[in-house]
């Protein structure tokens, strides 16, 4: 199947509308690559495990809720070790790169790729690329061994460093070729995975025996298909500390308003989950749900009501919320970061001024607003226990996939099962909170905030939920809740 970006997807169809969106394999373009028995079969830790190897035919269903007569639908190849591998241990020369913003768990993924390669497959040559994509051609590499990475999961950030911009296809692939690298592990968000797809296509065009594996990363949790991205739980947990502080501050003073800005450029998952987890939040504002300030049903009216009822309130706002309102009242600045991502204006500061002005000038009412911006604090920390386990499984899935000769794939949890997903599938759109779904309804009923929607907006949101091709846009919220 030809994709919009000119790449192709391997589709396998079966009975009753079964579709496998398969990932590429080295033998697709190098049919003579030899295979070998998987060394794990002699590993005492694994050889006792019954059915340790994944059956060649195992696939994971994308949609778990089905109707009696509905087609079986899309599936992805199940992740895990295969009976046969396409690399000998001493032949492997792997590298790992981290790109984009920080995220809790990056170091755990790095650690577990290195340890997985060493301990499961006997691979001893693993390089770290310093400072993101541009590190391939402009910096020195770092030798990674289990000893070097032993404690890194206890630290936030990435020991390899990261960057935005600097993706030069030919320079990167030249560097891979010149160094004799044959497994490339790429950890990063949507931009990084697009860059990984470009690298894979070029490697294939040059006919190189190199597996490219992506491990998706973003605390915004906006990567489609997968259940959630690593580090998201940790970020939501850390956000609780800011919300608690806002609540304490607001509750200690007359007409106190605690305002917390959380990350989420295009998707409000962090704000939504942090709000639901906290139960102290009176109003949560996200990019997917437009709101307005003045007049009946607006934010100011709600704030006044809540202050009269409770004497204080807490507002959580995602950084991408209300950007259209900011654009109306501030001069739009079309600044971009090195990767071309639009730099957002600070909605937290803007809304703080708006609220203060409104109550001082129009209501002559004293309010005490405390603005807390924990933006980088929620992503610069080490991952929590459950994210650590998740990162380990993602890293091991990537290693098993590359050793088995798969390439051009991303690893991810789909309905609780680890799967290999073709790059184009996760690169074609962005996961968003669906405001006509039950999860957002749960949030509205827990905060009792206005929906800020008129019936016209609701009809529009419902239409947008189901695109013309009949496939639901996916969604964490749509699928899982
Ligand atoms: N369409 C693309 N094609 C090739 N490379 C890309 C593309 N988009 C982004 N990149 C490269 O991927 C890297 C990371 O991109 P970006 O800065 O957008 O972060 P990200 O991976 O999306 O992570 P985050 O979620 O933190 O923003 C950069 O080096 C950038 O040059
Ligand atoms: O300031 P930086 O490092 O460019 O990153 C900010 C962006 O990164 C993200 O955390 C995504 O990873 C966004 O939520 C945020 O807008
Ligand atoms: Mg991004």
UniProtKB/TrEMBL annotation:
The active site is at 220 (proton acceptor). NCBIfam families: PRK06830.1. It comes from Rubroshorea leprosula. ATP binds at residues 101, 164-165, 189-192. Catalyzes the phosphorylation of D-fructose 6-phosphate to fructose 1,6-bisphosphate by ATP, the first committing step of glycolysis. Mg(2+) binds at residue 190. Allosterically activated by AMP. InterPro entries: ATP_PFK, PFKA, Phosphofructokinase_dom, PKF_sf, PyroP-dep_PFK_TP0108. Substrate binds at residues 218-220, 263-265, 319, 376-379. SUPFAM superfamilies: Phosphofructokinase. Its main location: cytoplasm. Keywords: Allosteric enzyme, ATP-binding, Cytoplasm, Glycolysis, Kinase, Magnesium, Metal-binding, Nucleotide-binding, Transferase. GO terms for biological process: fructose 6-phosphate metabolic process. Homotetramer. Pfam families: PFK. GO terms for molecular function: 6-phosphofructokinase activity; ATP binding; metal ion binding. It catalyses: beta-D-fructose 6-phosphate + ATP = beta-D-fructose 1,6-bisphosphate + ADP + H(+). Belongs to the phosphofructokinase type A (PFKA) family. PPi-dependent PFK group II subfamily. Atypical ATP-dependent clade 'X' sub-subfamily. Pathway: Carbohydrate degradation; glycolysis; D-glyceraldehyde 3-phosphate and glycerone phosphate from D-glucose: step 3/4. It is an enzyme of class 2 (transferase). This is ATP-dependent 6-phosphofructokinase. The record marks 191 as: Important for substrate specificity. Its EC number is 2.7.1.11. GO terms for cellular component: cytoplasm. Residues 95-400 form the Phosphofructokinase domain. Its cofactor is Mg(2+).
């Amino acid at each position: 199947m030809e994709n919009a970006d000119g790449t192709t997807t391997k589709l396998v169809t079966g009975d009753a509308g079964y579709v496998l969106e398969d990932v590429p394999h080295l033998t697709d373009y190098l049919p003579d690559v030899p295979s070998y028995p998987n060394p794990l079969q002699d590993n005492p830790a694994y050889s006792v495990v019954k059915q340790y190897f994944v059956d060649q035919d195992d696939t994971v269903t994308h949609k778990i809720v089905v109707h009696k007569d509905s087609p079986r639908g899309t599936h992805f190849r199940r992740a895990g070790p295969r009976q046969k591998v396409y690399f000998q241990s001493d032949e492997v020369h792997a590298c790992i790169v981290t790109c984009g913003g920080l995220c809790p768990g990056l170091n755990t993924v790095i650690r577990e790729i290195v340890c997985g390669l060493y301990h499961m497959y006997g691979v001893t040559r693993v390089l770290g690329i310093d400072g993101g994509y541009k590190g391939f051609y402009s910096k020195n590499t770092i030798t990674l061994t289990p000893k070097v990475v032993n404690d890194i999961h206890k630290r936030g950030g990435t020991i390899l460093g990261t960057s935005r911009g600097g993706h030069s296809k030919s320079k990167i692939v030249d560097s891979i070729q010149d160094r004799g690298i044959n497994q490339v592990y790429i950890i990063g968000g949507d931009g990084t995975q697009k860059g990984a797809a470009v690298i894979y296509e070029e490697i294939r065009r040059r006919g190189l025996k190199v597996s490219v594996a992506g491990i998706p990363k973003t605390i915004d949790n906006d990567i489609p298909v997968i259940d959630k991205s690593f580090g998201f739980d940790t970020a939501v947990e850390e956000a609780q500390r800011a919300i608690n502080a806002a609540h304490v501050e607001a509750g200690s003073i007359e007409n106190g308003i605690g305002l917390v800005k959380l990350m989420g450029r295009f998707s409000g998952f962090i704000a939504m989950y942090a709000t639901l987890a906290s139960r102290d939040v009176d109003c949560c504002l996200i990019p997917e749900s437009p709101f307005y300030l003045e007049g009946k049903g607006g934010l100011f009216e709600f704030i006044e009501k809540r202050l009269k009822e409770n004497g204080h309130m807490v507002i959580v706002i995602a950084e991408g919320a209300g950007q259209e309102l900011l654009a109306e009242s501030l001069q739009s600045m079309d600044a971009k970061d090195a990767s071309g991502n639009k730099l957002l204006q600070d909605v937290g500061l803007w809304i703080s001024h708006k609220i203060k002005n409104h109550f001082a000038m129009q209501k002559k009412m004293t309010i005490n607003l405390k603005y807390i911006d924990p933006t980088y604090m929620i992503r610069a920390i080490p991952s929590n226990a459950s994210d650590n386990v998740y990162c380990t499984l993602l890293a091991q899935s990537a290693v098993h996939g590359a050793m088995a000769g798969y390439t051009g794939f991303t690893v991810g949890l789909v309905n609780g099962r680890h799967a290999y997903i073709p790059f184009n599938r996760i690169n074609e759109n962005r996961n968003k909170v669906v405001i006509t779904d039950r999860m957002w309804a749960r949030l509205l009923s827990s905060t009792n905030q206005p929906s800020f929607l008129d019936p016209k907006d609701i009809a529009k949101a419902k239409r947008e939920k189901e695109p013309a091709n009949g496939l639901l846009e996916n969604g964490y919220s749509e699928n899982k809740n």
